[in-house]
Each structure stands twice: as C-alpha cells, then as structure tokens.
Amino acid sequence: MALNEPKSTEPQLPVDEAPHNIFYRTVWRWHFYAGLFVIPFMLILATTGIIYLFKPQLDTVTYHDLLFVQQASETSTDSTSLGATPLPYAQQVQAAQSAYPMATVTKFVPSLEVTRSAEVIVETADARNLAVFIDPYTGQVLGTRDEERNLQAIARKIH
Fold first, then answer.
1. What is the pTM of this model?
2. Can you tell me the distance from the alpha carbon of 26 to that of 23, in angstroms, rounded to the nearest whole number?
C-alpha cells in the first residue's frame, strides 16, 4: 500500500455469514423485542398480584380505624359501653340496617377477635356494595368502605 493512497472508511462486512448464525441472531432479536413488549404487562401483574396477596396486611394498615375496636370492660364507666360481651348478631345487623335503611343486607361477618369489628355487607338502592363496620360491643357504626372502589377491588380488576 502506497503512502498516497486514501484509506477506505467503509466497514468491512463478512463475506458469507453462516445460515445458523443468521437464524441465531434473528431469534435473539425477536426474543429481545418480545421481552420489551411483555415486561410492562408482567410488572402490572406482579404489582397487582402483590396487592391482592397481601390484602389482610394492607387492610389492617389502610382501614385500621374501621377494623379494630376497644373491647368494652365490665367495669367501664363509659356510657356507650354495654359490657364485655358483644351484642347479638341480629342487633349488629340492625345497626347497619338503620344506617342504610334502603339497603339490603347480603353478608354478615362477625368479629374474629375481641378487638375486631363486625362487618355487614349491604347493597344500596343504586347497586353499590358497601361494607359497614360495626362495633360489636356498642352497636355503633364505625364507617363504611365501598367494596368496588377500594385498593383491593381496583387491583383485582386490573389483574
């Protein structure tokens, strides 16, 4: 090569690439693009699955004021306390019905522990499902949770 000849700037291409190498590169290219397409769906499924899997733990954090009550003592001087024994289930359901008179009771979940509230599921006239939380010792309505518009329901729909 002479000193005055210009150098070629074009890249050197392989003369003949083996067919199995072309196939291998094509498969890996499609695999890469398929992975990029699938990753967002897998992340959504994993996130909503975790939310759904840890429902009890998330509920106790999110709805602590609705799920937990102070157990009434027999010597309590509080005028709203009726004693250490919970009210009959019929009275607890009646408390929910009096809070939502036009609703239909569809489910009753009694308190699982002495510090847990009872849960009455009602269907309102506008077809919403509400969980009404009742203090099993006083019959007081602690609050409600819309069963179709909470974190768990949204995660379940997305999942």
1. 0.71
2. 5
